[in-house]
Specification:
Number of strands: 26
Strand order of the largest sheet: 14-15-16-17-18-19-20-21-25-26
Helix content: 25-40%
Number of helices: 27
Largest sheet: 10 strands, mixed
Distance between the termini: 76 Å
Structural class: alpha/beta
Strand content: 5-15%
Shape: elongated
Radius of gyration: 33 Å
Length: 794
């Protein structure tokens, strides 16, 4: 066997010392007179690629020389020439094993070439001309060595490469030209960019990508196709579309594209773009957020407008990856130059609809297809574990994979659900459940929701299922914040069940951890936040819809999001809802309700673009089972007196309602455990003492930070169940650690000396024996430490 190492003239600037290794059976070439390897070597040299030949190989017998070992490890690309007698060479097989290892650990590209009389299946399965050599190897070498060779051949046989039988008339010269063209493009796809001055902002940011795409030839081909189109200077490739059904892996693939360029940069390679930006768009695009993110990446102020973005981007060669586009975006209004008129820049668009790609201006589009049966099986085994290949389980696992229809999201999710199922009975039951749940599904439901619903059904308890459905209330791609998770925990009675707000929080974190393990939700962009994959959210909404249609007592959601929503749902739509959410809407007025909303437990109205008017009658009083009312960040909010009728209310959040002037009487809200008045700058009302001591005695959480609310003297000190008190810059509240201490203002304002402040509350913190978090001024104290002498938690 001989090995050639190919070094281009520009290799000294790269992260590799060598660029190409040719792996082939030298003795076969000498005995048969077929000089394919030598001709390929010559062709590479003629393509202005210098070739280094390891002449010491012949002196080493079947051992790999140090020079060759170094050459393999430092090569960017390996070309394997599979001939009839290839498998008879131990040295060929050892080198191949090393090259496959370098592919996995170092990202080396391996290109198989199947010559006359050799098929990919022969290599993968060690059949045909590979069968007899391996029969002899099994007699001469240890089992672990032979197994290592078999594994390397299996992987190499599945990779994208070239086959002589695919060339008309078996023309070796044409095959060599194809190989040379591919190798040259891989080792030197574009000239190295000039060395730039060090920048504080990296041109490319690596994005996390946990999906497993190794050993998936179709996936690797699609990524390679995208890269080829991105590097093509033809203006027709300025905007490139990537489309396919939800959950098929579009986001995973474009993340690989982004990370490809990040990897090149980290290895000292030049890339053809000065900046690469990846953004999630979603069905209801938030244009200001998109502009803000681009501004940050460009080093511009966060509030930069379209004109400033356009001016900055037109001076750069950029690659913009717009993920999850549902409809046409007007690029110029955002501040994005059109790549067709901005030479060298590219936009990569992903969508479930080919029409959306076309509307965005894509002249070229790639359809992402589901995985093949072999790829699906490999991914499922990787996720679920090797026990699925056992003879008594394999027949069931194959049926489950068949239901997934090659959808990566479904395969990964179901794989996690079955990871710890070891009994045959469990697998038989799982197959029955999956088959039963698809009887009345059609189209997308048959191909996507049925296997995903199986994972939902396999969640351990109703509380997990309930939380999963609750998350679907929030808008697509929304980062569900920590306080919104607390809303659920308190609203579902977890404080009463587990004895404290801290215990309820811990239970919520445990539930979320279980959902993450089951791949039903994922980490959000911010610390402590979570979000749902869009297909998981659609699954949850479909489950709710199906449940409400079949069971009058089942959950029913009423959801409206987006500033284009100006019409309120009709009165009858409210009556059967269990949860209602309106986010970022432009609804001006809600309807009077003609009946009671007997099942409604959560009403979330947040971030309205305009003032929303509540009917003074026949509205809130019809929601008497409401446990969570979140009206945060609403303009010009005015609350009706009927709020006092919500006797089952546990959570009332009015965070960020700057124009709120007054609160209705709160004395009837005896179950209230969370009251959030953070940022209520216009709320100068003094809440009466009897309301706090009588009606709000169950409060566990009080947030009056950045507010002007006034609370009677000594009242907060008598809220003995209070666990969390947040009063950063509360202007009308004093505090002291003990009655012997001087009072302190929790405000940076000065000039209070000499003012009468008798109406302002004074908090003796030591009297709050359950307090675990006290947030004031710029400090946040936890129970253990500052409050360790105040008594013990229940």
């Amino acid at each position: 066997m001989a090995t050639h190492t190919v070094i281009p003239s520009s290799s000294s600037a790269s992260g590799f010392n060598c660029d190409v290794v040719l792996n082939y059976q030298e003795e076969e070439e000498e005995t048969t007179g077929n000089h394919f390897a030598s001709n390929l070597y010559t062709a590479l040299e003629r393509a202005n690629i210098k070739t280094f030949k390891d002449d010491d190989n012949s002196k080493q017998g079947e051992q790999i020389s140090e020079a060759l070992l170094k050459g393999i490890k430092e090569s960017r690309c390996a070309v394997i020439l599979f001939s009839r007698n290839y498998a008879s060479s131990r040295r060929c097989l050892e080198e191949l094993s090393l090259m496959i290892e370098c592919r996995k650990k170092l990202g080396q590209r391996v290109i198989p070439v199947f010559l006359m009389g050799v098929q990919g299946s022969d290599v993968r399965r060690q059949e045909g001309c590979f069968e007899e050599p391996f029969r002899l190897h099994q007699q001469c070498f240890p089992p672990e060595v032979v197994e290592r060779w078999r594994s390397a051949l299996k992987i190499a046989g599945e990779l994208c490469g070239f086959n002589l039988k695919d060339i008309p008339h078996g023309d070796e010269e044409k095959l060599i030209k194809k190989i040379v063209k591919d190798v040259v493009k891989d080792v030197n796809p574009f000239p190295k960019s000039k060395k730039r001055k060090r920048e504080t902002r990296p041109p490319v940011i690596k994005v996390p990508n946990d999906a497993m795409i190794e050993n998936q030839p179709s996936t690797e081909r699609m990524v390679q196709q995208m890269l080829e189109w991105i590097l093509n200077p033809d203006p027709h490739f300025g905007i490139i579309g990537v489309y396919g059904m939800g959950g098929v892996g579009k986001t995973t693939l474009v993340k690989e594209v982004n990370n490809h360029f990040e990897k090149d940069l980290s290895e000292g390679e030049g890339i053809p773009f000065e900046i690469v930006i990846m953004i999630t768009v979603s069905a209801t695009p938030n244009i200001p957020n998109i502009q803000t993110y681009i501004s940050k990446r460009l080093g511009l102020p966060n509030d930069s407008e379209a004109e400033a973005l356009f001016d900055a981007l037109r001076k750069k060669r950029f690659l913009l990856i717009l993920d999850d586009v549902w409809s046409k975006l007007k690029l110029q209004e955002i501040g994005i130059p059109n790549p067709r008129t901005h030479k060298g820049s590219k936009i990569l668009v992903t969508s479930r609809s080919k029409d959306a790609c076309t509307d965005m201006g894509a002249k070229k589009a790639i359809k992402i297809h589901p995985l093949s049966e072999a790829e699906s099986w490999g991914l499922f085994v990787e996720v679920a574990g090797d026990h699925v290949v056992a003879d008594e389980i394999k027949c069931f696992s194959e049926r489950i994979i068949g239901r997934c229809k090659g959808l990566p999201l479904a395969i990964v999710t179901v794989g996690h659900a079955m990871a710890n199922r070891l009994g045959v009975g469990e697998w038989a039951s799982a197959v029955r459940e999956m088959e039963l749940s698809t009887t009345d599904l059609r189209g997308m439901k048959e191909e996507v929701f049925a296997p995903l619903k199986f994972s939902f059904d396999r969640l351990e308890n109703d509380m997990l299922r309930s939380l999963f459905l609750y998350f679907a209330c929030f808008p697509e791609d929304y980062n569900i914040k920590e306080y919104e998770i607390v809303n659920y925990c308190v609203g579902e009675g977890l404080v009463d069940k587990y004895g404290s707000l801290t215990a309820a929080r811990n239970k919520g974190e445990d539930l979320i951890r279980s959902l993450k393990i089951a791949c039903m939700v994922e980490d959000g962009e911010y610390k402590g936040s979570v979000r749902m994959h869009d297909m998981m959210r659609e699954l949850a909404l479909w489950i709710v819809t199906s449940s409400s249609e079949s069971d009058s007592n089942g959950p029913s959601f009423l959801i409206r999001t987006g500033e284009l929503v100006i019409e309120t749902p009709q009165a009858h739509e409210w009556l059967n809802a269990t949860r209602i959410l309106f986010y970022w809407t432009s609804i001006e007025k809600f309807p009077e309700l003609g009946g009671r909303c007997q099942k409604l437990t959560s009403f979330l109205l947040s971030h309205s673009y305009i003032s929303t008017v509540f009917p003074p009658t026949n509205f809130l009083q019809h929601m008497d089972h409401l446990s969570v009312l979140d009206l945060s960040y609403n303009k010009s909010l005015s609350l009706p007196d009927s709020l006092s009728c919500l006797v089952h209310l546990r959570v009332l959040r009015l965070q960020g309602c700057r124009d709120l002037r007054s609160l209705p009487a709160l004395g009837m809200l005896q179950l209230l455990q969370v009251l959030d008045l953070n940022g209520c700058e216009g709320l100068e009302q003094k809440i009466q003492e009897y309301e706090w001591v009588g009606g709000l005695s169950n409060l566990r959480y009080l947030d009056v930070a950045n507010s002007t609310v006034s609370i009677p003297v000594g009242v907060i000190s008598r809220l003995h169940k209070l666990e969390e008190l947040r009063m950063l810059k509360a202007r009308n509240i004093k505090w002291r650690m003990s009655s012997a201490e001087d009072e302190k203002w929790d405000s940076s304002e000065t000039g209070r000396e000499g003012q009468k402040d008798d109406h302002r509350s004074i908090i003796d913190v030591e009297e709050l024996s359950h307090l675990t978090i006290f947030n004031h001024f710029i400090q946040r104290y936890h129970y253990f430490g500052l409050f360790q002498n105040f008594g013990q938690q229940d």
